[in-house]
Design brief:
The chain is an alpha/beta fold. Helix content is 34%, strand content 20%. The strands form three sheets. The chain has a six-stranded mixed sheet, with helices on both faces. Strand 7 and strand 8 form a beta hairpin. Helix 3 crosses helix 4, helix 4 packs across helix 5 and helix 8 crosses helix 11. The longest helix is centred in the middle third of the chain and has 16 residues.
Length: 299
Protein backbone atom coordinates (compact mmCIF):
# COMPACT_ATOMS: atom_id res chain seq x y z
CA UNK A 1 0.00 0.00 0.00
CA UNK A 2 1.00 3.62 -0.50
CA UNK A 3 0.09 6.93 1.10
CA UNK A 4 0.86 10.27 -0.48
CA UNK A 5 0.50 13.75 0.98
CA UNK A 6 0.63 16.08 -1.99
CA UNK A 7 3.80 15.21 -3.87
CA UNK A 8 5.39 13.36 -0.95
CA UNK A 9 5.14 9.59 -0.49
CA UNK A 10 4.91 8.85 3.25
CA UNK A 11 4.48 5.13 2.46
CA UNK A 12 5.59 3.86 -0.94
CA UNK A 13 4.42 0.42 -2.04
CA UNK A 14 4.89 -1.25 1.34
CA UNK A 15 4.00 -4.95 1.39
CA UNK A 16 4.47 -7.28 4.36
CA UNK A 17 2.65 -9.84 6.47
CA UNK A 18 2.54 -10.02 10.26
CA UNK A 19 1.82 -13.52 11.50
CA UNK A 20 0.44 -15.00 14.73
CA UNK A 21 2.60 -16.57 17.40
CA UNK A 22 5.46 -14.09 17.20
CA UNK A 23 6.41 -10.57 18.23
CA UNK A 24 7.09 -8.61 15.04
CA UNK A 25 9.15 -5.46 15.51
CA UNK A 26 8.48 -2.53 13.19
CA UNK A 27 11.64 -0.45 12.79
CA UNK A 28 12.67 2.58 10.79
CA UNK A 29 14.34 5.99 11.10
CA UNK A 30 12.29 9.05 12.01
CA UNK A 31 10.05 9.97 9.09
CA UNK A 32 10.29 6.50 7.56
CA UNK A 33 6.51 5.98 7.51
CA UNK A 34 5.98 3.79 10.58
CA UNK A 35 3.21 5.84 12.21
CA UNK A 36 1.44 6.39 8.88
CA UNK A 37 1.51 2.64 8.24
CA UNK A 38 0.05 1.90 11.67
CA UNK A 39 -2.65 4.54 11.17
CA UNK A 40 -3.64 2.86 7.90
CA UNK A 41 -3.80 -0.52 9.61
CA UNK A 42 -6.21 0.99 12.12
CA UNK A 43 -8.31 2.74 9.48
CA UNK A 44 -7.40 6.23 10.69
CA UNK A 45 -5.79 7.09 7.34
CA UNK A 46 -6.91 5.75 3.98
CA UNK A 47 -4.23 4.42 1.62
CA UNK A 48 -3.77 6.36 -1.61
CA UNK A 49 -3.42 2.96 -3.25
CA UNK A 50 -3.41 -0.62 -2.07
CA UNK A 51 -5.09 -2.02 1.02
CA UNK A 52 -4.46 -3.45 4.47
CA UNK A 53 -6.46 -6.16 6.23
CA UNK A 54 -6.46 -7.78 9.65
CA UNK A 55 -7.53 -11.42 9.48
CA UNK A 56 -8.92 -10.87 6.00
CA UNK A 57 -10.94 -7.71 6.70
CA UNK A 58 -10.30 -4.01 6.90
CA UNK A 59 -10.34 -2.84 10.51
CA UNK A 60 -13.62 -0.94 10.09
CA UNK A 61 -15.36 -4.01 8.63
CA UNK A 62 -15.01 -6.05 11.82
CA UNK A 63 -18.33 -6.03 13.71
CA UNK A 64 -16.53 -5.63 17.06
CA UNK A 65 -13.11 -4.15 16.19
CA UNK A 66 -11.84 -3.89 19.77
CA UNK A 67 -12.35 -7.63 20.18
CA UNK A 68 -10.35 -8.25 17.01
CA UNK A 69 -7.53 -5.68 17.21
CA UNK A 70 -6.13 -3.93 20.25
CA UNK A 71 -4.06 -0.83 19.53
CA UNK A 72 -1.89 1.67 21.35
CA UNK A 73 -1.17 4.67 19.14
CA UNK A 74 -1.24 7.64 21.51
CA UNK A 75 -1.32 6.78 25.20
CA UNK A 76 -2.41 10.28 26.24
CA UNK A 77 -5.52 10.21 24.02
CA UNK A 78 -7.72 10.08 27.14
CA UNK A 79 -10.03 12.73 28.58
CA UNK A 80 -7.94 14.18 31.43
CA UNK A 81 -10.93 14.51 33.75
CA UNK A 82 -11.97 10.88 33.41
CA UNK A 83 -10.61 8.19 35.68
CA UNK A 84 -8.73 5.21 34.29
CA UNK A 85 -11.62 2.97 35.33
CA UNK A 86 -14.32 5.04 33.64
CA UNK A 87 -12.23 5.51 30.49
CA UNK A 88 -12.00 1.74 30.10
CA UNK A 89 -15.62 1.24 31.15
CA UNK A 90 -16.82 3.57 28.38
CA UNK A 91 -14.79 1.59 25.85
CA UNK A 92 -16.21 -1.65 27.23
CA UNK A 93 -19.82 -0.45 26.93
CA UNK A 94 -19.38 0.61 23.31
CA UNK A 95 -17.97 -2.80 22.36
CA UNK A 96 -20.22 -5.11 24.35
CA UNK A 97 -17.45 -6.07 26.76
CA UNK A 98 -18.49 -7.04 30.32
CA UNK A 99 -17.46 -4.52 33.03
CA UNK A 100 -15.52 -7.20 34.92
CA UNK A 101 -12.98 -7.14 32.10
CA UNK A 102 -12.11 -3.56 33.09
CA UNK A 103 -10.95 -4.72 36.51
CA UNK A 104 -9.01 -7.59 34.93
CA UNK A 105 -6.96 -5.39 32.60
CA UNK A 106 -6.36 -2.76 35.28
CA UNK A 107 -4.85 -5.45 37.46
CA UNK A 108 -2.89 -6.84 34.53
CA UNK A 109 -1.19 -3.49 33.85
CA UNK A 110 -0.69 -2.60 37.51
CA UNK A 111 -3.15 0.32 37.75
CA UNK A 112 -5.68 -1.11 40.20
CA UNK A 113 -4.59 1.20 43.03
CA UNK A 114 -5.01 4.33 40.89
CA UNK A 115 -8.02 3.20 38.85
CA UNK A 116 -10.29 5.94 40.27
CA UNK A 117 -7.78 8.74 39.80
CA UNK A 118 -8.07 11.19 36.92
CA UNK A 119 -6.00 10.15 33.93
CA UNK A 120 -4.91 13.77 33.43
CA UNK A 121 -2.67 13.44 36.48
CA UNK A 122 -0.95 10.29 35.27
CA UNK A 123 2.75 10.22 34.49
CA UNK A 124 3.84 9.23 30.99
CA UNK A 125 4.56 5.70 32.19
CA UNK A 126 1.14 5.36 33.84
CA UNK A 127 -0.46 6.68 30.67
CA UNK A 128 1.36 4.00 28.68
CA UNK A 129 0.03 1.32 31.03
CA UNK A 130 -3.51 2.67 30.60
CA UNK A 131 -3.05 2.59 26.83
CA UNK A 132 -1.94 -1.04 27.01
CA UNK A 133 -4.98 -1.81 29.19
CA UNK A 134 -7.26 -0.31 26.53
CA UNK A 135 -5.54 -2.38 23.83
CA UNK A 136 -6.09 -5.58 25.84
CA UNK A 137 -9.67 -4.77 26.86
CA UNK A 138 -11.35 -6.81 24.14
CA UNK A 139 -8.97 -9.77 24.61
CA UNK A 140 -8.02 -9.41 20.92
CA UNK A 141 -6.12 -11.85 18.75
CA UNK A 142 -4.06 -9.00 17.27
CA UNK A 143 -2.09 -6.25 19.07
CA UNK A 144 -0.73 -3.17 17.30
CA UNK A 145 1.43 -1.07 19.62
CA UNK A 146 3.29 2.11 18.67
CA UNK A 147 6.24 2.78 21.02
CA UNK A 148 4.71 1.02 24.05
CA UNK A 149 7.80 1.40 26.27
CA UNK A 150 7.92 5.20 26.08
CA UNK A 151 8.06 6.63 29.59
CA UNK A 152 8.40 3.27 31.32
CA UNK A 153 11.06 2.69 33.97
CA UNK A 154 13.30 -0.42 33.75
CA UNK A 155 10.78 -2.49 35.71
CA UNK A 156 8.01 -1.35 33.36
CA UNK A 157 10.08 -2.17 30.29
CA UNK A 158 10.71 -5.68 31.62
CA UNK A 159 6.98 -6.01 32.31
CA UNK A 160 5.93 -5.01 28.78
CA UNK A 161 8.59 -7.29 27.26
CA UNK A 162 7.36 -10.25 29.28
CA UNK A 163 3.73 -9.42 28.47
CA UNK A 164 4.29 -9.18 24.72
CA UNK A 165 6.21 -12.43 24.59
CA UNK A 166 3.51 -14.18 26.62
CA UNK A 167 0.77 -12.86 24.32
CA UNK A 168 2.68 -14.11 21.28
CA UNK A 169 3.21 -17.50 22.95
CA UNK A 170 -0.58 -17.71 23.30
CA UNK A 171 -0.81 -17.55 19.50
CA UNK A 172 -1.67 -13.87 19.15
CA UNK A 173 -0.30 -11.54 16.51
CA UNK A 174 1.87 -8.84 18.12
CA UNK A 175 3.09 -5.92 15.98
CA UNK A 176 5.15 -3.34 17.86
CA UNK A 177 7.20 -0.33 16.81
CA UNK A 178 10.07 0.98 18.91
CA UNK A 179 13.19 3.13 18.71
CA UNK A 180 14.87 1.10 21.48
CA UNK A 181 17.00 -1.36 19.53
CA UNK A 182 18.30 -3.08 22.65
CA UNK A 183 14.74 -3.79 23.69
CA UNK A 184 13.67 -5.03 20.27
CA UNK A 185 16.64 -7.41 20.31
CA UNK A 186 15.22 -8.98 23.49
CA UNK A 187 11.53 -8.83 22.56
CA UNK A 188 11.04 -9.39 18.83
CA UNK A 189 11.19 -12.64 16.87
CA UNK A 190 10.68 -11.08 13.46
CA UNK A 191 11.42 -7.65 11.98
CA UNK A 192 9.90 -5.41 9.35
CA UNK A 193 12.24 -2.49 8.59
CA UNK A 194 11.02 0.53 6.64
CA UNK A 195 12.98 3.43 5.20
CA UNK A 196 11.68 6.38 3.17
CA UNK A 197 8.30 4.68 3.03
CA UNK A 198 9.57 1.41 1.57
CA UNK A 199 10.09 -1.95 3.22
CA UNK A 200 13.83 -2.61 3.10
CA UNK A 201 13.92 -5.80 5.19
CA UNK A 202 11.50 -8.45 6.41
CA UNK A 203 13.35 -11.17 8.28
CA UNK A 204 13.98 -12.81 11.62
CA UNK A 205 16.02 -10.92 14.21
CA UNK A 206 18.76 -13.56 14.03
CA UNK A 207 19.05 -13.38 10.22
CA UNK A 208 19.04 -9.59 10.36
CA UNK A 209 21.94 -9.48 12.81
CA UNK A 210 23.86 -12.29 11.10
CA UNK A 211 23.68 -10.43 7.79
CA UNK A 212 25.36 -7.41 9.37
CA UNK A 213 27.90 -9.62 11.15
CA UNK A 214 28.97 -11.52 8.03
CA UNK A 215 31.74 -9.09 7.04
CA UNK A 216 33.21 -8.10 10.39
CA UNK A 217 35.98 -10.48 11.48
CA UNK A 218 38.26 -10.66 14.52
CA UNK A 219 41.73 -12.02 13.78
CA UNK A 220 44.52 -12.86 16.23
CA UNK A 221 47.96 -13.56 14.78
CA UNK A 222 51.62 -13.04 15.75
CA UNK A 223 52.09 -11.49 12.30
CA UNK A 224 49.35 -8.87 12.61
CA UNK A 225 51.37 -6.12 10.92
CA UNK A 226 52.07 -8.26 7.83
CA UNK A 227 48.44 -9.38 7.57
CA UNK A 228 47.18 -5.84 7.95
CA UNK A 229 49.36 -4.70 5.04
CA UNK A 230 47.81 -7.42 2.88
CA UNK A 231 44.22 -6.55 3.80
CA UNK A 232 43.71 -3.71 1.36
CA UNK A 233 40.98 -2.92 -1.13
CA UNK A 234 37.74 -0.97 -1.62
CA UNK A 235 35.45 -1.18 1.39
CA UNK A 236 38.02 -2.93 3.63
CA UNK A 237 38.83 -1.29 6.96
CA UNK A 238 41.24 -2.76 9.52
CA UNK A 239 41.66 -1.62 13.11
CA UNK A 240 43.95 -2.94 15.81
CA UNK A 241 42.28 -3.25 19.21
CA UNK A 242 45.27 -4.86 20.99
CA UNK A 243 48.74 -6.18 20.09
CA UNK A 244 48.33 -9.05 17.64
CA UNK A 245 44.55 -8.51 17.36
CA UNK A 246 42.82 -7.08 14.29
CA UNK A 247 39.19 -6.26 13.56
CA UNK A 248 38.52 -6.38 9.84
CA UNK A 249 35.46 -4.81 8.20
CA UNK A 250 34.44 -5.59 4.64
CA UNK A 251 35.60 -9.19 4.20
CA UNK A 252 34.44 -12.58 5.39
CA UNK A 253 36.33 -14.94 7.67
CA UNK A 254 36.85 -17.31 4.75
CA UNK A 255 38.49 -14.57 2.70
CA UNK A 256 40.83 -13.65 5.55
CA UNK A 257 41.71 -17.31 6.12
CA UNK A 258 42.56 -17.90 2.44
CA UNK A 259 44.70 -14.76 2.32
CA UNK A 260 46.61 -15.81 5.44
CA UNK A 261 47.09 -19.32 4.07
CA UNK A 262 48.53 -18.04 0.78
CA UNK A 263 51.12 -15.99 2.67
CA UNK A 264 51.86 -18.61 5.37
CA UNK A 265 50.59 -16.37 8.16
CA UNK A 266 49.58 -18.40 11.26
CA UNK A 267 46.19 -17.55 12.78
CA UNK A 268 45.47 -18.06 16.46
CA UNK A 269 41.90 -16.82 16.21
CA UNK A 270 39.53 -16.13 13.31
CA UNK A 271 35.93 -15.39 14.24
CA UNK A 272 33.03 -13.22 13.08
CA UNK A 273 32.22 -10.24 15.28
CA UNK A 274 28.58 -10.38 16.31
CA UNK A 275 26.87 -7.09 15.48
CA UNK A 276 24.20 -5.68 17.76
CA UNK A 277 20.69 -5.06 16.45
CA UNK A 278 21.43 -1.33 16.62
CA UNK A 279 24.57 -1.72 14.50
CA UNK A 280 22.72 -3.87 11.98
CA UNK A 281 19.88 -1.34 11.83
CA UNK A 282 22.25 1.61 11.34
CA UNK A 283 24.08 -0.20 8.56
CA UNK A 284 20.89 -1.13 6.70
CA UNK A 285 19.17 2.26 7.03
CA UNK A 286 22.23 4.45 6.40
CA UNK A 287 20.86 5.54 3.01
CA UNK A 288 17.25 5.76 4.20
CA UNK A 289 17.67 8.41 6.91
CA UNK A 290 15.65 11.51 6.12
CA UNK A 291 16.82 13.86 8.87
CA UNK A 292 20.51 14.48 9.66
CA UNK A 293 22.47 17.06 11.59
CA UNK A 294 24.86 19.26 9.58
CA UNK A 295 27.74 16.98 10.64
CA UNK A 296 25.97 14.05 8.98
CA UNK A 297 24.89 12.32 12.17
CA UNK A 298 21.38 10.97 12.42
CA UNK A 299 19.14 13.40 14.27
Amino acid sequence: MSKRYGGRAAVDGATFTVRPGAVTGFLGPNGAGKSTTIRMIMGLDAPTSGSVTVNGKAYAEHPAPLREVGALLEAKAVHPGRSAYHHLLALAHTNGIPPRRVDEVLELVGLTDVARQRAGGFSLGMGQRLGVAAALLGDPATLVLDEPVNGLDPQGILWIRTLLRRLAAEGRTVFVSSHLMSEMALTADHLVVIGRGRVIAETSVREFIDRASAKVVRVRTPQATQLRELLTGPGIDVTSTAPGLLEVHGVTGAEVGLLACRHAIPLEELAPVQASLEEAFMELTEDAVEYRTPEGHVA
